[in-house]
Specification:
By secondary structure, the chain is of the alpha/beta class. Helices cover about 25% and strands about 25% of the residues. The strands form five sheets. A nine-stranded mixed sheet has the order 1-2-3-13-4-14-20-16-18, with helices on both faces. α7 crosses α12. The longest helix is centred in the middle third of the chain and has 15 residues. It is globular, with a radius of gyration of 24 Å. The relative contact order is 0.18.
Length: about 450
């Protein structure tokens, strides 16, 4: 295991808590390694390294091989969005001398896991004058952090009788961003007219808005065109006395995105074109202009084909259909605390290497890709040839639930696809757990696949 790669991976998690931050890191590192923006060049030839981005939240990178592109590519496809809380477009409110940001949760979360944690705000505020303000508050040692409060146990009798999905509601996930000392109560004051009383109302909100304008140049209306994400504050850490595990935010799916990207950077140009694709919105159905359901990847390949002087609709279709893909996405690691949720013989275990999942989806394989056995045999042969440990797994027992990936959306082009990624404990929690050995073996597996 390469400890340097593990350290770089943890740094990637620390500096990439949003999709934009991930893309920014990937572009910076890619350009250091000779990749150029496809939109800035007119022609591409074998041996070139290029990338193309979409709205700063998705990216496709290509190492162009010597075969015609219509013979297909080897693709690693991951996603770089993670469950979180998003700040609403009209978010600033005050309740009894405490100021809050109103939020809307993103992706599949257990809402109760997000209360009483130190939280940070990351994102952008786009102003009508064309400027963009980058926001990152809560990560530096001297930064303030933010928090969502909870009911004390002494008063929580009613709350404790409610189901886990109900006792913290989505509308109660309001982020504390400031407070003010309440004015002293005065009987004479109470007798004054209502308009005089109102002078004290929203004084905390006004103070916070003034601070935002002074420090960041942000007006209240600027939140209408902002994209601010609430994430756990703090860095990824070694977990356990033996330091064998990693505790960090966003490891679903940045554990696979980073190792896929790193594998592409470290791979030599081969006969076949290699690609790393990192998309957005997987946690909410791969929708939108930056998700896998969009035409982003198809358009990126079309631009590449055109710059190679090979463009036709048929060439584009063949390039996609003749490709092979590992859908680089995580799988649920077997949880010894809750063994009844898993079919142990078909579960993945921390430290046992990359996980292949023939299908994802839920229950009766709904929304599944269901990889072909001929393709699985070829992938197995690559792993075994390179002495790379791997596991075959499902995501829990059949009736327990399930989950989706981008695999079925890539498969619609006719290419062979299988899910392949890192096993994760506490998936979708603010802090997720992976094994260092699995991070390393995923990198090795992705690199071997690309060099076919």
């Amino acid at each position: 295991m390469d400890e340097k790669l593990i350290g770089e991976y943890k740094s990637f998690l620390d500096n990439g808590k949003t999709e934009r931050e991930c893309v920014s890191q990937i572009v910076k590192e890619a350009e250091k390694n000779g990749f150029v923006d496809l939109n800035k060049i007119d022609s591409v030839k074998a041996g070139d390294k290029v990338y193309i981005t979409q709205m700063n939240k998705a990216i496709a990178l290509f190492t162009v091989g010597y075969d015609p592109l219509e013979k297909g590519m080897n693709i690693l496809g991951a996603h770089i969005d993670s469950p979180r809380l998003d700040v609403k477009q009209i978010p600033v409110l005050e309740r009894d001398f405490i100021c809050y940001f109103n939020t809307h949760y993103y992706g599949g979360i257990k809402k109760y896991q997000w209360v009483t944690l130190p939280l940070a705000i990351h994102g952008v505020v786009c102003k009508t004058d064309g400027t963009t303000v980058n926001i990152n508050i809560g990560e530096k040692a001297d930064d303030p952090v933010f928090c969502i409060s909870d009911i004390l146990p002494h008063l929580a009798q009613k709350q404790m009788k409610e189901s886990a999905s109900e006792f913290i509601s989505g509308e109660s996930l309001d982020l504390i961003v400031g407070s003010i000392v309440p004015p002293k109560k005065d009987k004479k004051e109470e007798e004054k007219k209502d308009d005089k009383k109102d002078e004290k109302k929203n004084s905390c909100k006004k103070a916070i808005l003034k601070l935002l304008k002074t420090q960041y140049g942000i007006e209240e209306n600027d939140f209408m065109s902002a994209e601010l994400e609430i994430v756990p504050a703090g860095v990824a850490r070694d977990l356990g006395l033996d330091r064998s595990l990693i505790l960090g935010y966003g490891q679903d799916d940045r554990s696979c995105a980073y190792t896929s990207f790193r594998a592409l950077l470290d791979s030599e140009v081969k006969t076949r074109t290699a690609c790393c694709l990192c998309v957005d919105k997987e946690e909410i159905g791969s929708v939108g202009a930056t998700g896998m359901e969009s035409h982003f990847f198809e358009n990126a390949v079309a631009e590449l084909v055109a710059r190679m002087g090979q463009y036709s609709d048929l060439t584009l279709r063949r390039s996609l259909a003749n490709s092979t893909m590992l859908s680089s996405d995580v799988n649920a690691a077997f949880d010894p605390q809750n063994p009844d949720l898993y079919d142990r013989d078909n579960a993945s275990f921390l430290g046992s290497g990359i996980v292949f999942n023939k299908f994802t989806g839920s229950r009766g394989k709904y929304s599944a890709n269901d990889a072909n056995p001929e393709y699985i045999a070829k992938v197995r042969a690559v792993m075994e040839k390179n002495n790379i440990p791997y596991q075959m797994s499902e995501l829990g027992k059949v009736d327990q639930g399930g989950g989706g990936t981008i695999a079925y959306l890539a498969a619609k082009y006719g290419m062979n696809v299988i899910d392949a990624g890192v096993p994760v404990l506490s998936m979708h929690a603010p802090w997720e757990i992976t094994a260092k050995e699995d991070i390393w073996q995923a990198y090795c597996a992705y690199k071997a696949f690309l060099q076919l």
